[in-house]
Amino acid sequence: MGSLTGKFSFFSRRNRDGQPKEGKALGRYTLAAFLAAGLVFAGLALLFYQQWMLSSEQQLSKYIQLEVQRQAVAVHAKIRAYGETLASMARNPILPRLIEGGDKRLLQVKEQELKYAFPGAIRVRLLPLGLNDVDEQSVPPLSYSGLALLRTAEGSDGTTLAEVQLLGRSEQYVAMAHRILSADREVAGVLFLALEPSVFANVLSRLGLADSYLELRQGTNQHQAFARYGNGQLASDPPQGLIPIEDSRWQLAYWLSTPGESESAHLMFWGGVAAGLLMLGLIFYARDRVFAHFLRGDLITLVNLVRDLQRGQLQGRYKVHLSDFKGAVAVIQRMTSEEQTGEETVVSAAASSGNAISNVVFEATEGIKVEEQLPKQGGPIAASIFKAYDIRGVVGETLTSETVYEIGRAIGSEAHAQGQQNIIVGRDGRLSGPELSQSLIEGLRATGREVVDIGVVPTPVLYFATQYLSTGSGVMLTGSHNPPHYNGMKIMLRGETLALDAIQALRHRIDSGDYTSGTGDLQAVDVVPDYIERVTSDVKLIRPLKIVVDCGNGAAGEVAPRLFRALGSEVIELYCEIDGQFPHHHPDPSQSENLEDLINKVKEEGADLGLAFDGDGDRLGVIDSQGRIIWPDRQLMLYAMDVLSRHPGATILYDIKCSRHLDQIITEYGGSPLMWKTGHSLIKAKMRETGALLAGEMSGHLFFKERWFGFDDALYAGARLLEILAADTRTSGEVFAALPEAVSTPELRVEMAEGEHFRFMERLLHQAQFPDAAVTTIDGLRVDFEEGWGLVRPSNTTPCLVLRFEANDGEALERIKDTFRRLLLEVDPSLALPF
C-alpha cells in the first residue's frame, strides 16, 4: 500500500519509474474539447457574419431608397408651403384694390411687406392683368417665360407649378404665381413670387446622405440643374435615378455610393472571432487549471485515506472538493466501519458529515449583518415654496439642504410611480447651488433613481438633455430671475413639466412620508457640446451678424457666446462670467433698467442686435440695432410670420400679457391665435393639448415646436431670430419698425406679503365691473377697451401683482391706467402703485 502515492501522480508526463503512464493526460481532453468548441464557435460566427452582411446590404439599399424619397418629399413640402402661403396672401381683399389703384408707391410698400412672409424671397410683385411687357432691367428680370407663367396663373385656380426662370444664367430664380380676384370674382392681377434657388439647395444640404450627390433639375439634361449638393465626382456617370417633384417642373437626380464588403469589416470580423477564441481558450485553460488543482488535492486526500486505513488510524472526516470523490470516501469509510464496529460507526460518520454541511451553511448566513440607513430628517417644510409651476424659496429660510433632500425623495418616489428610473439634474450659478444640488441628488438616489449630473447649465440645456439622453425626466435647481438669496426647482417627469396639482402632490407625498427606498447610481455627463451641435445643425445664417450678448452673470454665460460664435456671429460678451451674486444688474430682461448696459453697448459697438438672458437662460430680451427694447410680444410677431410662412393655419399661443397687435399679425398671416395663462409649465401643457407650433410669454419665455422640442429655450429663440434677420437685407431696427407697435408699459409690479396677492386678486375680481369692455379672467383680470387694454394678475413666482397697459396713444394709455388705479385703490387704499 505504500506505493499508492506514486501511482496517483497523474499530472506528470511519466511515472516516477520513468515509464510512460497509461492513459491520456487530462490536458489532452481539455484541448480536444476546446478545439471542438472553437470550431463550432467559428462556424456559427461565420454563418452569422454572412447573414448579417446580407441583411445589412438589404437594409442599406432600402434605407437609401427611402432617404432619397424623403428628400424628394422634403423639396415638395417646401414648394407646397410656399404655394399655400402664396394662395393665402393672394386672397387678401386689399390687393385687387391696390392693383386697380395703380399707385406705384403703395404697391411697392405692400410688395415689401408681403416679402417677409417668404423666407429666401428675392422679390414679391403685384402685377396687373394682361401684362405683356418684359422687364430685363428689374431685379430679378421678368422675361418672356415669366409672362407665360403670368398667363398660366391668370387662367388657373391654384398656384402655378414651381419653375426656374432664366435657367443657367447668374440671375436664375424660382418663380411661382397665383391669380388675384376682385370682390366680384374677376381676375384683377397676379401675385408673382421670385425665390433664391438656394432655398431648395438648403433642403438638400439638410437632408443629404453621406457620400452622395443630388441635383434638382428642370428637364433631364445635367446642364439644367439649378441646385446641387454632395460629392460632384459621382456625377461622371448617369444618375442612378430620377424622381419627379410634385407641383413643379423638376426632377431630383441622385448618385449614391453603396459600400460593399470592406477590408476593415473583414478585419473586424476575424479580429472578433480571434478574440472570442482567445477568450474561450482562456476559459478552458482556467477551468482546466482549477479542476486539476482540486483533482490533485482530492487524489492526495484519497491516498491519505487508504494509508490511514492501512495503518489502522482511520479519521472521522476527510475533506475533498469534488462531489464524485465524496462518494468514494464515504464508500471506503462504510466498508471499513462494517468490518470493525458495525452500524454504529456508520451512523456516527453520517452525523458528522451532516453536521459539517450544516455548520458551513449556518456559518455563511449567521455572519451577514443588515445595516439600514435612515433618511435625513429636516424640520417642517413651508407650503409657500410650492408655487403654481415650480418650487421656489429663500435659501436658509424656506429652502434648506434638508428641505431639498426631502423634495428630492418626493420627486424620486413620484418618478418611480410613473416608471421613470433615470433623472437628469442641472443647476444654475447661484452660490447655494453646489450644496443644494448635492442634497437633491442624495434625495433622488435614496429612492433608487439613477442620477445624471450635468453640472452648471442653462435650463434649456437640461430640457434638451432629457430629450437627447432619452430620460424624459429632469430637475433644474434654479432661482431663475429672482434675487441671489432665492433658489428653487423646475421639474420634468415623463416629458411634462410639473405644475399646479402635480407640484402640490409632491408636498402631500412629503407630509405623508410616502417615499420609495433604494440606492441609485450617479454619473456626470457634459451635454453642452451636443446641444450646440444640435442647434447649429438646425439654424443656418446666410450672413454673419455682430451681436452683443448680456448673460447677466447667469448660467447662460458659458453656453451663449459659444453657441452664437458657432453660428458664425461676431460676439461681444457682456457680463458672461457666472457669478451667483449678480454684481452688475438683476438677471431679469423683462425689466427695462436691467437692459440699460446692453443698450449702451449695442450703440457703442454699432452691433446688429443685442441679446439678454435671465439667470437660468430660459428668458430672452432683445435690443435692436437702434438701441430700442423689443419686448417679447413683438419678437413673437416676427417668429409667427416666419413659422406661418411654412405652416399656414398653425396655432400660435401667447400669454395674457401680450399685445393685441400680436393677434392681428397671426390672423393676417393665416395663423390661429390663442391667448392663455402665464407660466412656462402651463404654456407647454397647452401646446401639447392644441398642437401649437409656437408660443411665447411677455416675460421672455419662447417655445418652438417647429424644428425644435417645444420647451422654452431663449438660446434657441435667439438663434432663430438671428436666422430671420440674417436673411433680411434691412437692419434689425428697420425690420422691427415695420411691425405694428402700440404705446405700452413694461411689466409693472406691486410687492405684497407672501400669499396676500392671491387674496387681493379674489377681492378685485369680486368688485370689478366693466359692462362696456371685453373681460378675460383666465389668469387675473384683463380688460380690453376699444382704445387699448389693461391687466392685473397675481404672480406665480414672487409675492406681487403684475400689471401691464397698452393703448393706441398716450392719452388713451393714461385713461386706462387711471381706470385701473381707481379700481385697485378701492380694494386697498394703502397700495403704493408704480404708475
TrEMBL record:
- The answer to whether the entry has keyword Magnesium is yes
Q: Which Gene3D superfamilies match?
A: Alpha-D-Glucose-1,6-Bisphosphate, subunit A, domain 3, Alpha-D-phosphohexomutase, C-terminal domain
Gene Ontology biological-process annotations: carbohydrate derivative biosynthetic process; carbohydrate metabolic process
Its transmembrane ranges are: 29-49, 267-286
Molecular function per GO: magnesium ion binding; phosphomannomutase activity
In this chain the Alpha-D-phosphohexomutase alpha/beta/alpha domain maps to 385-514, 530-627, 632-741
Catalysed transformations (reactions): alpha-D-mannose 1-phosphate = D-mannose 6-phosphate
Question: What residue stretches are annotated with the Alpha-D-phosphohexomutase C-terminal domain?
Answer: 748-822
Give the protein's cofactors. Mg(2+)
Enzyme Commission number(s): 5.4.2.8
Output the InterPro entries linked to this UniProt entry: A-D-PHexomutase_a/b/a-I (IPR005844), A-D-PHexomutase_a/b/a-I/II/III (IPR016055), A-D-PHexomutase_a/b/a-II (IPR005845), A-D-PHexomutase_a/b/a-III (IPR005846), A-D-PHexomutase_C (IPR005843), A-D-PHexomutase_C_sf (IPR036900), A-D-PHexomutase_CS (IPR016066), Alpha-D-phosphohexomutase_SF (IPR005841)
* Pathway linked to the protein: Nucleotide-sugar biosynthesis; GDP-alpha-D-mannose biosynthesis; alpha-D-mannose 1-phosphate from D-fructose 6-phosphate: step 2/2
**Key words of the record:** Isomerase, Magnesium, Membrane, Metal-binding, Phosphoprotein, Transmembrane, Transmembrane helix
Family that this chain belongs to: Belongs to the phosphohexose mutase family.
From the Swiss-Prot or TrEMBL record, give the protein name: phosphomannomutase
